[in-house]
Amino acid sequence: MSMTSTASPAVTAPTETVTPPAAITPVVLSGKRRAPFIDFVLRFARNRAALVGLLLVVILIAVALAAPYYYPRDPLRIVGRPELWPFANPRFPLGTDSLGRDIAAVVAHGARTTLMIGLFASLTATIIGVSVGATAAYFGGWVDEVLMRVTELFQTVPNIIFILTVVAVLGQNITNITIAVGVVSWTAIARMTRAEFLSLRDREFVQACRAMGMGNIRIMLGEILPNALPPVIVLSSLVVASAVLFESSVSFLGLGDPNVASWGGLIGQGRTLIRSSWYICAVPGLAIMLTVLALNLVGDGLNDALNPKLRDR
Amino acid sequence: MLALTEDKRPQPGRDAGPLLSVDEIEVTLFTRAGKLTAVDRLSLEVKSGETLAIVGESGCGKSISALALMGLLPWPPAKLTHGKVVLEDRDLARLSEREMQDVRGKDLAMIFQDPMSSLNPVLTVGEQIVEVIARHDPASRKAMRERALELMRKVKIPDAERRFGDYPHQLSGGMNQRIVIAMAIACQPKLLIADEPTTALDVTIQAQILELMKDLQAETGMGLIIITHDLGVVAETADRVLVMYAGRKVEEGTVDTVFDEPLHPYTRGLMGATPSATDQPHGRLSEIPGSVPALAALPVGCAFNNRCPSAFERCFAERPVLTRPAAGRQVACFAVQQEGA
Amino acid sequence: MSILSARSLSVRFETPRGTLQAVNDVSLDVNERETVGLVGESGCGKSTLGKALMRLVPAAEGRIFVSGQDITRLGSKAIAAIRSDVQMIFQDPYGSLNPRHTVGKIIGQPLSVAGWKRADIKARVCELVDKVGLPQAALDRFPHEFSGGQRQRIGIARALALNPKVVICDEPVSALDVSVRAQVINLMKDLQAETGVSFLFISHDLSVVEHISDRLLVMYLGRVVESGKAADIWPAPAHPYTAALLAAAPVANPKLARSRTRKTLQGELPSPLNPPQGCAFHTRCPIAQARCHEERPLLRSIEGHAGRQVACHFDLVTHQKTPDLAATETSYVSA
C-alpha cells in the first residue's frame, strides 16, 4: 500500500527532465542488484594479491592433474646419473637428485600428495572443529565446559610431536599423515566457530526461529552456520597451508610415506648434499614456499570477500 | 593590548554577532561507487547562549554535519569540500589538525549518543576529566583533581569524591553521560555540540540530562547545538530549529514558528507522524510514505519529491533553493513558494 | 476470553554477582482483539517478561496460559503446537532477519516448521507480503536490500504467517525513524482490525504505547506497579512512578513544554540485583513516607475505578497528596 504509492499517483512527472528509473515503484528494490555470488567474486577480485595467489594455486592444481600424463611412470624410479644440475640435461629440466631420480617428476607428483593431504587434512579439521565449536557454543553449560577443555588439551600437545607419534605408531602412510594433521589443526577452527556461534546464538533472528518452534539442529545448521561460515572458511584455507608445511616436515624427518613422491621427502634427502647440490633442496623448497604463500594470499582474499565488516554498504 | 585579550571571551547577554557561523559547508563522501554529497551547502548560525536544534531522520546528514564542524570527519571517505566554519572570527575549516586540536575541547566541545563508547573503559572517570583539563589548561595534579571534582559536582554526580575513582562500567548510562558532559564543559567551551545526547537513555534520565544541559547553558552562556530525531526533545530545549533532509536544509525558524506553522511538507509530515499526548488516542497517525532515499539514489529535483504529498512538476525537475518567507525563517520548497506568491 | 495470561510469573537469572529477579510475581491477561501496552524503563523486566511468555526463557514460578491451556511446563513437542497461536515481533529490524536467507524464505519459515506443503507456503507467503505492503519482487531479495521500516514489515509478515491469536511485540518501532514508525504503527492497527489479532506491545516509548494500547501495565524493577485502561491512566496516573514517567516524556509542543513546571524524577534505577527494601520505588519517590521503606505495597484495586490496579500505599488517585505532581499532570493533559 504505502510502499507502492511512493510514486505519488497524482503527480505526472515531466518525461523529458526526469528519467524515471525502472524501479521507482518498489522503493529500495532499485539500485544495482547482483547475485550474491557475483558480488563475492567481485570483492575477491578487488584484492590483487589474492588473484596472484589464486593463479598460483590454479597452476599447482594443473601441475598435479597433469603429472600422470607427463610422467606416467613411477617418479621414484632412478632415471639417470645422480646430481645432475638443472638444465644440464634437457631430459631432466630440474636436474636429478642424489639417487638419480628426476626432480621434475618428483615435484609434479609431489604436488598431488601435497594438495591431497592439504585438502583432506583441512576438511577433517573443519568438520571436527565446526562440530565441536558449534555444539559447545549452542548448548553452553557443561557441554561447553567439557568440549573446550578437550580443545585445550589438544592445543597443549605440540603439534609436530603429536603427528610424528601417530605416524610412528599407526604406520607411515599418507592416510595416517592426513588424519594426524587434521586432528592437530581443528582446535583453532573450533574456537573460531564457537566465538561466532556465541555471538550469533542470541541474535534476534535465532530467537525468532526458536519462537516459531524450530528444532535445535535445524537452527544450528540452517540458521547460524551459514552466518558463522565465512571466517571459518578463511581459517580452513589457512589450515591447508599449514597442512602442507606439516606434511613437508614429517617427510623431511623421514617419516613420510616412502612410496609416495613428496616435496618434504625430497628436501630431506637433499639436505646432506646442500653444500654441493643445493638445488635438490631449493626446487621443492621453492615449491612449498610458493604454495604456502599462494594459499595465504587466497585466504586473505577470501577474508576480504567474506568479511561483512569490509562490505561497503 | 589589554583590550584585545578582553574581547576574546563571549559575553553572554550582550547581543553581538553570531558565535558560530557556518557558511555553505559541503561534505563529500569519496566511495568506490563515486562521490556522494552527504551535506549539501548547509549554512547555519548560533549565538552565545542560544540553542539550535538540528532535526532529521537517520542518514539526513545531521551527525556528519556536526563532525564537520568539529573537524572530525572520518577520512576516508568523508571530506569537507566547500564552505567555512567560522567560530568568532576564525575559520576552523582552514586550521591545521594541530591547531584544531587546541580548539577542540577548549572552544568547541562535543558529546555523543553513546556515553559508554565515548569514555575510555580502562581509565577512571575522574582521570578522564583530569586529562581534558591537563590538555588545555594544565595545573598541578592536586588543582586539576579539585577542578575535576568540582565539575563532577556541577553535573550533579552524587558523592563525587567516591565516584572519581570509578570506571565507566561501574556507572549507569546516565551517570556516564554526566561524566561526558563534565569533560565537555571542563574548559568552558563557547559552543557545545550534542549529538543525540539522550537517545540511549531512559525517559526519566533523559529529562534529568536535558535539564542539566539547560542549567549549564544558562550558567555559562555557551552556544548549544542539539542534534536529535526527537521532536519532543526539540520542543523542550531549542530556541531555533533546523530541519534536514537528505543532506540539505529544508526548513529553519524559531521553535515556536516552526511548531505552530511548519511550512515544508517534510516538517509537517514529521509532526503528523509523532504521536503526542495532545491528539486523540487510537486515531490514525499521518504517515510519510516510502523511506528516506539512499544518498546514492537521490531523486532528481527536490530530494523529497517521491514522498511529498504536494509535489508538482517543478519539484521533479529543479532543486528548490532556500527562500525567506518571513524574518528568521527559511524554507526550501516550491509548493510553499507558490502559495506565498 | 483471555488469549494469553500469566499468573504470578517470576523469572530469575543466576549471575556471577547473585540472583537477578528479572520478573517478579507478574499477572496479566491479553484478551481478544486487544492491545495491551507494557511500559517501563530499561532493566524493568519488560522484555524478559515477553520472552518468558514465549517460553524463550524459563519461568521460575507462576504459570502461563494460552487460550486457557497451561503451557508453563509443556515439552518442546507440545509447545510447538501452540507456537502458531503466539508469535513475536522483535525490536531490531537488522538483527531479527537472517541475512543469509531470502525474504520469501524468512516469511515462510514458520509455515515450513509447522509442516506446510511447499506450494501452500508459497501461496501464503505471496499473500502475506501483499498484506504488509511489500511488492512481490521482495520475495527473492535479501534483508540487507531493505530499509529498517521495510524489514520490520517482513518481521510482521513472518509473525502473522500462521494467523496467531496474539503477537508479542518487543519494542517493534523503537529502532525506526519517526516517519517510518508511523507507517508501521498504522500497519499494525490495520492488521489488527483485519485479522483480530491481539498485541502485547512492549515499549519504553510512552507516546507510542499510549497511542496504540487499550490497556496498560507499568513495570518497575520487575514488578507491575500500575495497570488499567490506557484512557484512565493517562489523564490521572495513580502510581507516582507512572506520573513521573509521563512528566519526563518530552512533548512535541514548545509552548506546552515551557509552561508545564516539570518535576524531574531524581536519582537512578537501583540495581535489580539488590532491590531496595519495602517499595522498590521509595528511593526515587517524591511522596515516599516511612512506611514505604519497610512495607512493600501490594498490587490492589483502586476503589471506585473499575479495572485499575496500583501498587502504592499513597496512590495519587485516592490520596491527593502531591499537589506538585498532580498539578503537572493536569496542566499537561488539559493543554
UniProtKB/TrEMBL annotation, chain A:
GO process terms (BP)? peptide transport; protein transport; transmembrane transport
Quote the subcellular location field of this record: Cell membrane
Keywords attached to this entry: Cell membrane, Membrane, Peptide transport, Protein transport, Transmembrane, Transmembrane helix, Transport
Source organism superkingdom: Bacteria
Q: Which Gene Ontology CC terms are recorded?
A: plasma membrane
Signal peptide range in chain numbering: none
- Family per record: Belongs to the binding-protein-dependent transport system permease family.
Protein name per UniProt: ABC transporter permease
TrEMBL record, chain B:
Task: Supply the SUPFAM superfamilies for this chain.
Answer: P-loop containing nucleoside triphosphate hydrolases (SSF52540)
Enumerate the CDD domains for this protein. ABC_NikE_OppD_transporters
| Residue span(s) of domain ABC transporter | 20-271
Keywords, in A-Z order: ATP-binding, Cell membrane, Membrane, Nucleotide-binding, Transport
Cellular component, GO annotation: plasma membrane
| Keyword Ubl conjugation among UniProt keywords | no
The entry's localization annotation reads: Cell inner membrane
How does the record say this protein sits in the membrane?
Peripheral membrane protein
GO molecular-function terms, A-Z: ATP binding; ATP hydrolysis activity
Q: Which InterPro entries match?
A: AAA+_ATPase, ABC_Ni/Peptide_Import, ABC_transporter-like_ATP-bd, Oligopep_ABC_C, P-loop_NTPase
A biological process term (GO) from this entry:
peptide transport
Predominantly, its location class is membrane
Matching entries from Pfam families are given as: ABC_tran (PF00005), oligo_HPY (PF08352)
Q: Which superkingdom heads the taxonomic lineage of this protein's source?
A: Bacteria
PANTHER family per UniProt:
DIPEPTIDE TRANSPORT ATP-BINDING PROTEIN DPPD, OLIGOPEPTIDE TRANSPORT ATP-BINDING PROTEIN APPD
In the record, the note on similarity to other proteins reads: Belongs to the ABC transporter superfamily.
Q: What is this protein called?
A: ABC transporter ATP-binding protein
UniProtKB/TrEMBL annotation, chain C:
Question: What's a GO biological-process term for it?
Answer: peptide transport
- Limits of the ABC transporter domain: 6-246
Q: How does it sit in the membrane?
A: Peripheral membrane protein
| PROSITE patterns assigned to the protein according to its UniProt record, in alphabetical order | ABC_TRANSPORTER_1, ABC_TRANSPORTER_2
Q: Which GO terms describe its molecular function?
A: ATP binding; ATP hydrolysis activity
Q: Which family does it belong to?
A: Belongs to the ABC transporter superfamily.
Q: What is this protein called?
A: Peptide ABC transporter ATP-binding protein
Organism of derivation: Azorhizobium oxalatiphilum
